[in-house]
Amino acid sequence: MPLSEQQLLNMEKKRKRILESATFLFATEGFEGTTIKKVSEVASVSFGSVFTYFKDKEELFYTAVVEPLKEFSEVVFDFDTDADNPRQELENMIKTHIELFAGVNNYLTLVVHVVGQHQRYPDIFKELDDFHNKFRERVGLLVKNGQQKGMFVEQDPLVVATLYTSLLIGIRLNTTDSRYSEMWKQYISSAVNLFGPI
pTM score, two decimals? Predict the structure, then answer.
């Protein structure tokens, strides 16, 4: 007998709760310190329930790092690289990105963990690297557009884009303020200056 819509919704919520709990634990206790038992306790589900959705801890970790990339893509890549006013588009992009990154501290801790040990997690690293390359490429196109319109100083667009993506991660990891702090808004104008507005 097929599952009802409500049962499917409940399963989806439970899976999400497991992933959120795993992300928190992987970020705070590391891969080694996180066990399926701890994940089940934090998620308030049975030990066996975790295995309904994930084969093992490795698959849970992979999913916790890779799955959010699709959702982030919809926000991170949502800017017009060919905008008529690249300066305004840049400011809007930075505001959106800073608001997003302000809320994903635990997730970014996992990203840094994988990047720092990329030989250990080659499949996950490849997914992150592909995302980062696409991100840098799109930001670089916006920078190039601004340079062609005489709004930004001439500099290597990809270098600027790389510095920008590093800045976003670094700000979140070095800032203890909550995502709703006024401090986050203050970073926007300084981040704009990275692109060399004229």
Answer: 0.89
